Amino acid sequence: MYTVEDLALALSQYLPYEQIAKVKRAYYYAEQAHDGQRRKSGEPYVTHPLAVAEILSELRMDCDGLTAALLHDVIEDTGISREALTEQFGEGVAGLVDGVSKLTHLEFNNQIEKQAHNFQKMAMAMADDIRVILVKLADRLHNMRTLDAMPAHKKRRIARETLDIYAPIANRLGMYKVRVDLESLAFQAYYPMRARMLQKAIHKKYGQQRIKDTQKLEDTIRSELAADYIEASISVREKHIYSIYQKMDKKRRSLDEIMDVMGVRIVTDRHDSCYRILGVIHALFKPIEGRFKDYIAVPKSNGYQSLHTTVLGTNGIPMEVQIRTEEMDLVANNGIAAHWAYKVSGTSSMPSNHDRATKWVKSLLEIQQKARNPVEFVDNVKNDLFPDEVYVFTPNGQIIELPSGATPVDFAYGVHTEIGNTCISCRINRRLAPLSTQLESGQTVEIITAKNAQPNVAWLSFAITGKARTNIRHYLKDKQRENAISIGHRLLTRSLNAFKTNVEELTAEQIAQVLANHQLESMDDLLESIGKGRHVGYLVARELFPNIDEESLVTPKSFKVNGSEGMLISYAKCCAPIPGDPIVGYVQVDKGIIIHHLNCPNVQDHLSNPERFIHMAWGKEIEEELHISLIVTYINERGAVAKIASSISDTDFQVSNLDIIERGRVSRLRLSITISSRVGLADVMRRIKAVRCVEKVSRETIVGR
């Protein structure tokens, strides 16, 4: 059994005696605090924090980090307070322990919310001290190693959480060894049968003669490097099982189609030797086109540096070759934890991945501040934990790192929040492109902005980075409140007009009474609630003037629509009203005002709530772009559809969809277009009718059915 003396012996290789003494004192303090407590396996509880400290000692963690590892469950599982820890071990250690501790005294609606709160607290503590996540990762790793003692349902929950959150964080921080261990253990716990079957298939395919082939491959490469006077260590490995499973699952490929199940790692002493070794490898084996990546020139976002190339081995099986220096290898395996190894040894050249990781953790603060709740925060952070990156350039040559699948909107927010908020279009390699385009490494992206532009809710369908999604949601949330207050003011004013008064003439006592009735804090909160349909303007007006007789009320004026009201006024898809149609509004909870054609059959469904209906009228100049569908009946001759489409191709109207709904000698198609006026609709219909094969054009609507 591993003991505190074993830990002290390991620490003596890089820590001074007085610091080792502090770590040992923390162990005895934890042993006493956890006295009588046992793990599910039956072992004394203190064996767990000791194992966590052992994992961190292998990463050469500093004294305070090791002390916190030994004490990390003291606040959560014993009666000892943070103040007591501060008195004994200092504020730094107490802060680390508190950052790792779970939220044990709050009530949550469900397990997802609980996990979200825990992760949010941990992330905020990470922003103050990155060692919090290192202790937590070591804690999770030991828990995964001893997961067999847990009941089956808890095994699956912990394994899923590890795959979703902790392994990606380890990857984001460049901690390869920890990530691989977490993924492998979690995969075996969550998919035990798949893990066994895949391991068996790998052994069957690559197990025969593997040892002999591996030794032969190493000898061949070593002799070629020696001939060029290059010193290097060579290791041949099998890609870890979860990585193989992910490639098979995501890309829907069989094991035979996975390119790099076998891998060779070559570690040398000098930077320039990496490129010389690459030349030797490409002379020995045939490189596979498109499978070379230079992460030395352009490091990954977690600081990882290496040359990657995939070649055909002697047996015709593809293998990935990684080439790096000893320093790069240390950073590749330990990631941000390598920072403390360098710090303790006194080496002056600190790995840059510490700065990169710190920058990423700081960005969590911005996401947290603008997220509506912890669940949304965790959801956005997950989007930032992609293992693959693309590297694109700004027009002045600066490299921006983004997750695979990122779009120009993600790029814009990656450069600066204000650029993201005001972008209207982009150029990729000097050519205009849609904002939804998925970016590829090496492209140059230029964002075009406009002073009065603002984020679009449609961006949420393709923006993937946490920073972009959080800022879009934050802006839209603020804008929605602003719109809701404006609409709520108009609706309440309209209702008060029936009482021959307006909002400005209300007394403080009247307002205070209504706010108290609905448990609201301010007039803006009340107006927002009315604008969002949670409260009805007419009913609020009745509360303000309860003693006025219904017969004395005057009919309020129609609510004018001009198209600039924002996202809380929308048009019913069932009847698709356009300027000139008679319309009526229905106030729907949390959706605002839905505008229907006055004769729409669906309006009848809402008659049980007449107070939610509003007389509506079109403003003189409607600014809104409206989506309608036209049904075109035509003779099905050669090129007919192309002629119909081209008839409006030279106009400003956008065709969003063209769908043939009936085929035959006489066919019908549905043409979805965007217009801004009734005049525009008439122009489009006139152009289509002018096509020789067209027999009839009509606007699709359920009105009158």
TrEMBL record:
- Record field: catalytic activity: guanosine 3',5'-bis(diphosphate) + H2O = GDP + diphosphate + H(+)
Q: Pathway it acts in?
A: Purine metabolism; ppGpp biosynthesis; ppGpp from GDP: step 1/1
Q: Which UniProt keywords apply?
A: Hydrolase
Q: What class of enzyme is it?
A: hydrolase
Which superkingdom does the taxonomy of this entry point to? Answer: Bacteria
Supply the EC number(s). Answer: 3.1.7.2
Please state every residue range assigned to the domain named TGS.
388-449
Q: What's one Pfam family the UniProt record gives for this protein?
A: ACT_4
Name the CDD domains on file.
HDc (cd00077), NT_Rel-Spo_like (cd05399), TGS_RSH (cd01668)
- Provide any one GO MF term from the record: GTP diphosphokinase activity
Please cite one Gene Ontology biological process associated with this protein: nucleobase-containing small molecule interconversion
Q: Which PROSITE patterns match?
A: ACT (PS51671), HD (PS51831), TGS (PS51880)
User: What's the stated role of this polypeptide?
Assistant: In eubacteria ppGpp (guanosine 3'-diphosphate 5'-diphosphate) is a mediator of the stringent response that coordinates a variety of cellular activities in response to changes in nutritional abundance.
Q: What is this protein called?
A: guanosine-3',5'-bis(diphosphate) 3'-diphosphatase
Q: Which organism is it from?
A: Marinomonas rhizomae
